[in-house]
TrEMBL record:
One of its GO terms (molecular function) is oxidoreductase activity. Residues 3-313 form the Isopropylmalate dehydrogenase-like domain. Keywords: Oxidoreductase. SUPFAM superfamilies: Isocitrate/Isopropylmalate dehydrogenase-like. Gene3D superfamilies: Isopropylmalate Dehydrogenase. InterPro entries: IsoCit/isopropylmalate_DH_CS (IPR019818), IsoPropMal-DH-like_dom (IPR024084). PANTHER family: DECARBOXYLATING DEHYDROGENASES-ISOCITRATE, ISOPROPYLMALATE, TARTRATE (PTHR11835), ISOCITRATE DEHYDROGENASE [NAD] SUBUNIT ALPHA, MITOCHONDRIAL (PTHR11835:SF34). This is Isocitrate/isopropylmalate family dehydrogenase.
Length: 321
């Protein structure tokens, strides 16, 4: 039986994940779900945000549905999500941005770059090492090129004019694109950030390093209604984790106003990863119809609550059967 680990995490993760799970269950009642605890809330109760037991549970799953976790800006606290991405070796962070006139996929290297976790404090300075390896670049370049091959073209977002580490990244990505026969151009990340918002039609697959992809994807949410809309997949050779791009949003948590679309769409990506394109399409279609019928949460200008939106998607999914 296919096993799905469910991590609600903190904040609005606890509100949007149960909805995403219910929607997945509605289209695939044969899947087995099990809950796994991780995050800041768990840390406050037990002193451990993501222990060995949690990691073993996640490793045992065929896929993980993840909400969001709070990371306090405390140098002593390790980010749970970075730990999971690294330990499960989820090297490709895939972030589709789809909406009217917009169809872009940001492919973010997910295990190294500025988020390698190699950091230290000195008396008057703090250092973070930016690691870009040939192997790490090759595998993300291969992933992005395979995706671009089935679509249109590739843009390599970088800052090679300043960072030596990005010279390697660009060299590897352009070589892989040439090998794969994928039309490819390179673009400095700062200029790209503006151009992507002004001319989204110029972009198809964008591959970039860890922190640039993190920032670029939040900014790109502007094109399609904000952070509540964007799903993501974290893919490795052996494991896969699906989560909304947004965080735990403590400013709106517990008020039934979070937009669950990002989480539900992450569920659709999970279904498609399991090879069930029809179920994924059914979920996407249900979300489209509900939004199209004017049922929308507050961030989109509507009045529907998180749960009411979820119920509407569930009704729509049921109708599609
Ligand atoms: P955030 O993504 O949680 O929120 C940014 C803004 O977008 C907030 O105003 C929030 O209300 C709004 N927003 C986010 N998701 C929304 C939704 N589904 N519906 C409606 N509005 C939504 O980012 P922020 O505020 O920078 O971080 C909050 C916490 O989340 C921090 O502790 C941070 O470390 C953590 N975080 C966790 C992530 C993860 O687990 N994947 C990713 C990003 C941040
Ligand atoms: Mg982010």
């Amino acid at each position: 039986m296919t096993k799905i680990a469910v991590v609600e995490g903190d904040g609005i993760g606890r509100e949007v994940v149960p909805i995403a799970r219910a929607v997945i269950e509605a289209v695939r009642p044969d899947l087995e779900f099990f809950e796994v605890e991780a995050g800041y809330g768990l840390w406050k109760r037990t002193g451990n945000a993501c222990g060995e037991e949690t990691m073993a549970d996640l490793r045992s799953a065929d896929a993980v549905l993840f909400g969001a976790v709070t990371t306090p800006p405390d140098p002593g606290y390790r980010s749970v999500l970075l730990q999971i991405r690294r330990e499960l070796d989820l090297y490709a962070n895939v972030r589709p941005i789809r909406g009217e006139g917009v169809d872009i996929v940001i492919v973010r290297e997910n295990t190294e770059g500025l988020y390698s976790g190699i950091e230290w404090m000195e008396s008057d300075r703090a250092c973070t090492v930016r690691v870009v390896s040939r192997r790490g670049s090759e595998r993300i370049a291969r992933y992005a090129c395979a995706l671009a091959k089935s679509r249109r073209h590739l843009t390599v977002g970088n800052k090679a004019n300043v960072l030596k580490s990005d010279c390697l990244f660009v060299e590897v990505c352009t070589a892989e694109a040439a090998r794969a026969g994928v039309p490819c151009r390179t673009c400095y990340i700062d200029a790209l950030a503006l151009d992507l918002l002004m001319h989204p039609d110029r972009y198809d697959v964008v591959v970039t390093t860890n922190i640039f992809g993190d920032i670029l994807s939040d900014a790109a949410a502007y094109l399609v209604g904000g952070l509540g809309m964007l799903p993501s997949a974290n893919i490795g050779e052996r494991h896969a984790l699906f989560e909304p791009v947004h965080g735990s949003a403590p400013d709106i948590a517990g008020r039934n106003i979070a937009n669950p679309v990002a989480a539900i769409r992450s569920g659709a990506m999970l279904l498609s990863h399991l090879g069930d394109a029809a179920a994924a399409a059914a979920v996407e279609e249900a979300v489209r119809r509900v939004l199209g019928a004017g049922i929308q949460t507050r961030d989109l200008g509507g009045v529907a609550g998180t749960r009411e939106f979820g119920a509407a998607v569930l009704r729509e999914v049921g109708r599609g059967k």
